[in-house]
Design a protein that fits this description.
Oligomer: single chain
Number of helices: 7
CATH class: Mainly Alpha
Mean pLDDT: 82
Number of strands: 2
Strand content: under 5%
Distance between the termini: 23 Å
Bound molecules: calcium ion
Shape: globular
CATH architecture: Orthogonal Bundle
């Protein structure tokens, strides 16, 4: 399965509980994700590839991905990743309007494009994910304002 979160699942599918440290080394995990989302393998991850990747989460095909759609899909794939999926949703929902759409994907893409040259390179991609994975290590301690109690604590 080709998906950012799907690739994450490959690394943690055997975990009994959410533990982002199982994704270490983070740079290797991020590089694997980059190559999987770069569908045409031209070593350039485009905004369109990112949007296409997320389309599979839009269960009712209304062009928006709600938290419920996103986390339900994660539950379906790998229940052990359910809690982490809420943190990732918050990261992606850049305007905090509780659904993901092309505006969020554009914002996210430009956030990763740290040298503002219009494309997200592998080093730019890796830098963001390593930083995010490291920040999620402290997620249980509620360190940066994100609640870990959105919805149910486990898949139902
Ligand atoms: Ca939808
Ligand atoms: Ca949004
Ligand atoms: Ca760039």
């Amino acid at each position: 399965m080709r998906s950012v979160v799907g690739i994450l699942f490959m690394f943690v599918a055997t975990a009994m509980s959410v533990n982002v440290q199982l994704l270490q080394p983070y740079a290797v995990t991020a590089e694997t994700m980059y190559h999987n989302i770069d569908v045409n393998h031209d070593s350039i991850f485009t905004l369109q590839e990112f949007i296409d990747d997320f389309r599979q989460y839009d269960i009712d095909h209304d062009g928006k991905i709600t938290r419920h759609e996103y986390t339900s899909f994660v539950c379906f794939l790998t229940p052990t990743m359910y809690q982490l999926s809420h943190y990732l949703f918050d990261e992606f929902d850049s305007d905090s309007n509780h659904h993901l759409d092309t505006g969020d994907f554009g914002n996210f893409y430009h956030l990763l494009d740290s040298d503002h040259n219009g494309t997200v390179s592998l080093p730019e991609w890796t830098a963001w994910w390593v930083k995010t994975f490291q920040s999620l290590e402290g997620a249980d301690h509620h360190v940066h304002g994100h609640s870990n109690t959105h919805g149910n604590s486990m898949c139902t």
